[in-house]
């Protein structure tokens, strides 16, 4: 496809952007309203016509929820945005399109969750918890964006994100509500799903044309430093990402487990990078990404009793696996499967996500009432007894509801089943989405425009260079530029 066709569709993409926001306004207005904590009318119904007293549950207290929400917010817009600035001439697009995509998709995620939680009045309630869930959901298409970075138009990314969030919501409903599995830090539902959805689309794009090296596909000294800003922000706030959906002791364990795991992955990533690199030197690609793999790998079991030694082992394995993936596996899948993975999401999110799902199943198989006491049935609601005689004390003292009386082995099997289903839904829906994205309705990027900010942005430096050339041509030959006077 030539340059002209892309630019001729540029105006069309702008109109599509306006159209999407208008649709979101209409749907949000029809579906969403403030939750009981912020809705005066609902508050009156609870406390009387003139009553204003409202006792908040601990999990709905804004003072407790907002710090976690803000941490995840920083991860999504700064962490993911700057992590993808490593390409030498795609920094504005990496940060800017993350900004745009996040702003659109957080609205889509709120609507998707709202559809799943419609109340009797045909409205869905908004709270800080729902905003937090929406932020976590937005991470999924941003992970997929990493596999496609520099090869799509912004409307292709928007379309991908909308479809992906719908499928993400379906998959998470199947995993959490139908299978009743546990994935506190979303190793399966966010990281694994996002990685393989994006890789499936990249596979479809690879079928379209023969892959060849691009002169702009690579970092510069300064772009690598900017990307490390994203790495550091993600590394710092990952404990909040894995623990935000939890409460009490579970949340405290998740914070501790995540810090230990991501620390171990950081150390092992540095060591392995030097081991497999030339002259035993660190590779910046490994350091920007593989140091974070421990945060992904511990996600499913973040709130469980992993013990420090188990957590450190998982983090170390994740860091090792991620670096080896960059060094050996990525070239293989690009060569044999024609899957081009710009940011290496398979190594940071895909394989560590699968490792996290397997480790979560192992910890579920080892979980007993002796080690967890009655909190076992808060972590694994499906394992709670369903007979009244066993349930009475737990319900009265701990608020535990009847479960499915699953054994530890059964819960572990359901955890693995959720992982397999997640992979299946991600790959199949990703392939279909990729085929649709090849239709010209969302525009396309020519080979010459790939990995180049010029496809989407007015570049100030080029405007200045153009004006200088124009001025120098208009000057007489006996005039010297100001810099030489």
UniProtKB/TrEMBL annotation:
Highest taxon of the lineage: Eukaryota
GO cellular component, one term: plasma membrane
Membrane topology listed for this record: Multi-pass membrane protein
Gene Ontology BP terms: ammonium homeostasis
Renumbered residue ranges of the record's region Disordered: 463-485
Limits of the Ammonium transporter AmtB-like domain: 64-456
Listed transmembrane segments: 14-34, 68-87, 94-118, 130-150, 157-175, 187-207, 219-238, 254-275, 287-305, 311-329, 350-368, 416-441
Record's keyword terms, sorted: Membrane, Transmembrane, Transmembrane helix
An MF annotation (GO) of this entry: ammonium channel activity
Pfam families reported for this sequence: Ammonium_transp (PF00909)
Localisation per UniProt entry: Membrane
Family stated for the protein in its record: Belongs to the ammonium transporter (TC 2.A.49) family. Rh subfamily.
Protein's UniProt name: Rh-like protein isoform X1
Organism from which the protein derives: Apis mellifera
Source lineage: Eukaryota, Metazoa, Ecdysozoa, Arthropoda, Hexapoda
